[in-house]
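sry for the spam today, last one i promise. struct tokens for design, 129 residues
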């Protein structure tokens, strides 16, 4: 059975997002718009500029995401809900320290005129315990 279009969109977005996050977080800014909302560990940021500021001032410079699962669903307005679980290895941590576990969800909306998607909502949480 062929993969549903929303699955393809969600998986392609996740691959692009984390590759960019791990190499140059500043380049993530163009995925957000002024009505975008980002929540990092309970702290909320509204708008592309505030989100980019937060992403580029996180307390670590380098990290590597290892995705363990991606779940996608279609939303109204031809959007895509994406839920990601994975492991996060942060630069400077002891090599024998296990990676941090995280969950992140995105609501993607189509760009006006087509040709891509932008992030309406983004929620990130570390999973402790």
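last one done:
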């Amino acid at each position: 059975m062929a993969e549903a279009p929303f699955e393809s969109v969600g998986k392609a977005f996740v691959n692009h997002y984390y590759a960019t996050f791990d190499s140059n977080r500043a380049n993530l800014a163009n995925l957000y718009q002024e009505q975008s909302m980002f929540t990092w560990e309970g702290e909320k940021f509204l708008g592309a500029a505030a989100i980019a500021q937060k992403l580029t001032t996180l307390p670590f410079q380098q990290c590597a995401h290892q995705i363990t699962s991606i779940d996608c669903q279609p939303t109204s307005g031809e959007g895509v809900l994406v839920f990601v679980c994975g492991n996060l290895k942060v630069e400077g941590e002891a090599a024998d320290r296990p990676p941090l576990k995280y969950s992140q969800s995105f609501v993607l909306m189509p760009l006006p005129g087509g040709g891509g998607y932008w992030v309406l909502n983004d929620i990130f949480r570390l999973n402790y315990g």
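The chain is about 20% helix and 45% strand. ok im logging off now
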